[in-house]
Amino acid sequence: AKMAILARLAFHTPVTLDQVDFEGIEDIRPDDLAYAKELGLSLKLLGVAEKLEEGITVRVFPCFLYPGHPLAPIEGPFNAVMVEAPEITEVTMSGPGAGGLQTAAAVLGDVVSVVAGDARLHTADRDLPVLTDVASSFYLHLEVADESGVLAEVARILSDGGISVKSVVQRGLGDDARLVMVVHRCLESDFKAAVAEIARHESLKSPPRFIRVIEEEFVA
After folding, report:
1. What is the rounded end-to-end Cα distance, in angstroms, of the chain?
2. How far apart are CA 30 and CA 17, in angstroms?
3. Is 172 helix (H, G, I), strand (E, B) or coil?
4. Which end of the chain is less packed: N or C, by CB atoms within 10 Å?
5. Residues 171-180: pLDDT tens digits?
6. Active site (annotated) includes residue 51
């Protein structure tokens, strides 16, 4: 709901709740966090509204960030909003995200805007398409049989789908063999098709798990 409102304000186009793709954190495992730390990543739950050439995308999802991303250090009770545009590069604002005073200030600010007749609260003078298939980088976790050639076969499937691998961690032996990798940006539909093919391979011992990764970093 927050992202639908923010997308409407930012892009002046109607966005309904059923147009916001969302995922929670219920499928994330402790070992995902451990492997991500080895890869230099931190986990955040993000809401993203983005204007692209073809339209806009509005999503909520858990993802991994590299240390150079402005949202990576946000922890505990703090929330943050990051705004990007060609003219400003990026501006990030952070502060406490819960509490009586903070909630009261936010509600009162909305009341003042309504009383003042702020047209931005209800104006939607554009009708940009809301996109569902966008590009992203991904973390991919595979439990595999401890056999020779498994990594090469996984790499082949990804390559055939036009997906390149950025980094790989291989851990464990026997029943505890793991392949963990981060792939570069690609269309989500292409990545999911490749993962579906990998999942059918006889070397897989459990369904693959994947989490989006934002590769973007900013240097102060």
Report:
1. 32
2. 30
3. coil
4. C
5. 776 666 888 9
6. no
